[in-house]
Records
---
Amino acid sequence: MKKEFPKGFLWGASTSAYQVEGAAYEDGKKASQQDVINHENYEKHGFANADIASDHYHHFKEDVALMKEMGFSAYRFSIAWSRVFPDGVGDVNEKGIQFYRDLIDELIRNDIEPIVTLYHYDLPWTLVEKYDGWIDRQVVADFEYYARYVINEFKDKVKYWTTINEQSIIVQYIEQKCFIPEKYRGNNQIRYQINHHMNLAHAIACKLVHELVPGGMVGAALGYAPVYPLSSSPQDMMAAQNAHDLRNAFYLDIYFKGFYTKSAMIYLEEHGLAPVIEPGDMELIEEGESDFLALNYYYSDCAKACPLDAGKEISYGGVNLSGKKGEMSGFETHPGFYEMCKNPNLDTTDWDWSIDPTGLEYLFRDIYMRYNKPLMITENGMGAFDTLTEDGKIHDDYRIQYLREHIKAMKRAMDYGVEILAYCPWSALDLISTSNGVKKRYGFIYVDRTDDDPKECKRLKKDSFYWYQKVLKSNGDELD
Ligand code: BG6
């Protein structure tokens, strides 16, 4: 390594509200769409629901103390819209907003910079019942109502704001991330319509931060996987370019340049998938300038050519529900454009996510050199089955190895000039995964519960906790 991490570099970790908080119906909070989706997941697959999650709502002081002990200088978390406005709009829920006041104050008391995400998949259920949620344009105005209140409330305490979590992943995994009423299921156009509404909401939130927060900085949190061609054939190379345009550039161009990537838009128009864009929308999107981009990076992707006459249909991302390697249910396919596939050069996690630290270096270089805005990591991590030993230890050397190599890759990108503000991997503590319950764990802090039994959610320190503590103490110097 050439230079040292800059002084003031933010080290921490991340969570999201519905995945850790629990207290899903307590102190005036009403259901979010994730409370409903996760109840269905429990019925269908036996994955823990969000009712108790990691019970962070009742343990937050203990959790912040553990973050402090690890040496965090930042913590990225989200605010649950339905805790603040149980019906989406209307009267604020005093006890709900008080929870976030207490959490933010506790962080600041411990010298931990709050990085706040306004929206992480959990739309108030009332808005789904009222007008089918993100499918309807009304959601943009309601989001503005909520965002204005929250940003104004914390304008003197929170400098870093992220707007919407992972629009790219929402488009891919629409039914996991948004409740889609029966009549819309299988309608792929709504993926891009919802995304368009989120682009408007994102732009509004950027403008609000600039209007209300002195010195505030704002950007989206984008789920990002660089796309490699399966081979060096020109056809695979072109497929990888197409996949990059539709899966990555389609979001980067909106956030940084205020327009939709043309090639992707033409593909969508040709297939009846393009969003309806109303007069004034693109002007608003252009006005919503980002100061940085937050990136959630877990794996890289791979694409190959998919000829039109291959007899395939448009399909979206598959999932591995079992945690047994090789059981991924399928790959996104757009005949005539690209088909995603497994990269034979990379090992994977038990859930078939490729492990590729160099992919992180590559994307940092690629994004920064094109758009020239600061970047931060708000997610990066390894989902694994952890084992709690009889003497209360968790030996997660695989996670240490994963994080160590990714930090090295991030540092190499910095050595080549990329401006990176923060590293907040996923996750500070164990939580409910969006697709696999609590048995797929990510945290530095072990939460003692199972999918069926929340027990007392006792906190225990994993080996990675002590390792990360050393990393942070040395400002990223001691990684081994
Ligand atoms: C990101 C999300 O997509 O990946 C998180 O922002 C999520 O909410 C994380 O938990 C890991 O994915 P999963 O499906 O393993 O929980």
---
Amino acid sequence: MVDISARERLRLLLGSGAFVLTGCGGGGNNPPSSGSIFQGGGGNPPPPPPPPPPPPPSGNTELVPGLLRDTFRNNFTVGTALSNQRVDAMDPSAQLALEQYSSITPEWELKPDVIQPEPGVYNFSEGDRVVDWALENGMEVRGHALVWHESMPAHFYQGTPVEIRSRLEEYVTTVVDYFRGRVTAWDVVNEVVSADVYRGADGIGPDRRSEMFNAIGSADYIDWAFRAARAADPAALLFISEYDTETQLKRDWLIEILRRLNSRGVPIDGVGHQFHFFLDTDPNQALAAIDAVDNEFLGLINHATEIDVSFYRDPGECWQSRTNCLADLGVAPPPEMLAQQARLLRDLFDGLVMRSSVESVSFWGVRDSDSWLNSSPVERTNYPLLFDRDAQPKPVFHAITDPNYEI
Ligand code: XIL
């Protein structure tokens, strides 16, 4: 059983499209002035009813029951990460992507270490291939990610804060302008919330002390990136992307950062919740992350951006020193674990469809063999996605597309 937020219940009682003004933090119904959805507050007439659900992307006009994209067509776009190598080979994952999904996130081709490996150099060829393939097949594109500490070459941090700012603004402007009209939504910043949650109250937050943070002495790079992206493509939706928002402390720090961005009028359209789960993740905690954004920043969009379910909840030392990691489960995982994965994502999707702020839901890969979790934190067989290594739908696929499927 999944929770439905009080606000969503009220929204449903008031009828679709009726928004309840927020108590704080902006939101509300004012049209964004600085491009930020945050310019809210103050009594306003109820907004007009929401427009009808968008028509299917041009390439996917036929409604086919049981397909992911059509099962949720009136709720949200369903997408997946996909890399050039799969597109070039038109491997089973690319073929399933064409059949089942209506949004593509290039897995690594739009990251800074690919686009700008050297100062002043721009390599768009990798991104162009997967972006244009998606568009040619009627799919939307989520751009990931303009700023991510795990993929920013050192030259981004060289020089004074003024030089770093100028270089970052030039990079974001150039990249967003180049893909203008082709990328629907950008993860402008990725994983900028402190990872110190494991120290609890002793944790230092809300901002990650990344190389960028340390190079300029603050998290102002977040503001710079959003403002440059908005200026470069006013039509693109701009997201702050984060993992572990299903963890209370991480979620609290994210909200604290959103409040700061709001107070500065930073243009932002939504939150991308990565939702990298384990089998024992509580789906209601993930839904609470959506509600936390809704409850304070009504009007912000929520995307689930990188869903997968790892079959290994390793101890910390496995992540820190690759020791004491759980043993490989082998080629065929235990059926009970597959059933647990199915129950988890059925409950998650039952909750997501009840939350109208959720406009896109993406998985981080198509087949289990695609997943980054087969090599992170260690080389090991994982089973995190909807399709098995033979491109067959798993119990979890049926659980979310067929309400009558018995897990
Ligand atoms: C991962 C890709 O899947 C890997 O292929 C790559 O080597 C490293 O990055 N969170 C994110 C994604 O935001 O960008 C990461 O993607 C997975 C974790």
---
Amino acid sequence: MNVNTLSKDKDPMGAAIYDFHANGKAGKLRVLSSQFDEDEIPVKTLFRSLSQMPILEKEALKLATGKILDVGGGSGCHSLALQEMNKEVHAIDISPLSVETMKLRGVKNVELANLFDAQFADTFDTILMLMNGSGIIGELSNMPAFFMKIKQLLNPGGSVLLDSSDLKYLFEDEDGSFLIDLAGDYYGEVDFKMVYKDVEGDQFDWLYIDFQTLNLYAAEYGFEAELIKEGNHYNYLAKLTLK
Ligand code: SAH
């Protein structure tokens, strides 16, 4: 598992975020994958305000209590909304340009850090992982490391709030049956690479996980998984609490 942070010359999303903050607009943030057609993230959506956020994110912000960790803060949209609510939040990101932008935008506690780095060892009451936050886990084989890490970071009674999607709809046949190769890799394991202007990032693994599978792993590692709310497109918000 990668425990590093990015260098500025390999930080396309950070470059887009920095650019948008500085100029009020940004170019195309391209998303490449070996499994999907090329896509694009509208950079403006990374700057969404509370009222523009999807309902699952609003719910997560409402439920977040105590000392909160915003994992992969990006532009700082969730941290800023939490600060507005007078909640205590700490943001981390592996993207140096995102961290710089968060500071410029007024996020009070920001750190350039990788969730999985052993050096990162503070404790929190709520850990937020939003915008398909399970992605940061990378692949299913990282589940043990993920649960071990959150066990270390959570205060007694604390919980992780994360959103994800069940990608099974991508494999649905016209007759409603699912074409999933059960002997292959888990269908929610994808790879991405981002490109912004002339900045090209390295390829990374990103995990989409259905609630059933998350629940199985959680139980195995001593956590209770609760389905808080479902979205309207195979997506959901879950809460993980140590049993
Ligand atoms: N939460 C933000 C950004 C989501 S994009 C939003 O909802 O708009 C995912 C973010 O996670 C990126 O900024 C990326 O740099 C960061 N990230 C990816 N892996 C990480 C890790 N291991 N530790 C901390 N941050 C990570």
---
Amino acid sequence: MPTQSLVFLGAPASGKGTQGRRLAEFGGFSYLSTGGLLRTALREGTALGKEARPFLDRGEYVPDEVMLPMVIEWLGALKGAAILDGFPRTLAQAEALDTAYLEMGHPLPHSVFLDVPDEELRRRVTGRLECVSCHWVTSRGAFEVCSKCGGKMAPRADDEVVRFENRLNEFERLTFPLVRFYEERGRLTLIEALGSPEDIHTELRLKILL
Ligand code: AMP
């Protein structure tokens, strides 16, 4: 049972979801995708979904005041270590996360940065489908139903070109500085995430789970 949580940093389509979820299953971590949680809330029309919708529609980040209570509540029920996919995304979120872990008396999370060039991100995003139920991701044409839960596979609305470029800008402006934040604290592992999903998973296991 792992004791230190991991946060996955990376641009949209860098493989955070695929790799984070797979490593969580392999290593016995709990798993949280904040983007997945938001898209479920949107689909179900909850108060959170209504609040988040205009931001997701524009490909912008949802404000920290909305994200923080949501994640802190999730952490409150956490047993053991977690993989957080897509959180933190801003310096305020990273600082709040460290504070929450200190208060819980758990080791501070380690970060994994999946580094992928922009051109490859753009290539990947045109071909991906996500399960509307469990958020499993595949490339277009691979499966019509989700191989994990049998749900419907569909393109993500925010993968549309203009929204995707906004998300990429948000990443560079607000999230990329977190690489430095974790590096300065000696809590960063960089992965050049350009190979096959299988090779990247193997590298993660070697570098992270030793
Ligand atoms: P993802 O599935 O991780 O690509 O997230 C999809 C979208 O959800 C992002 O483009 C943001 O609009 C929103 N989102 C997810 N996580 C966060 C976060 N930690 N802070 C702000 N917005 C978020």
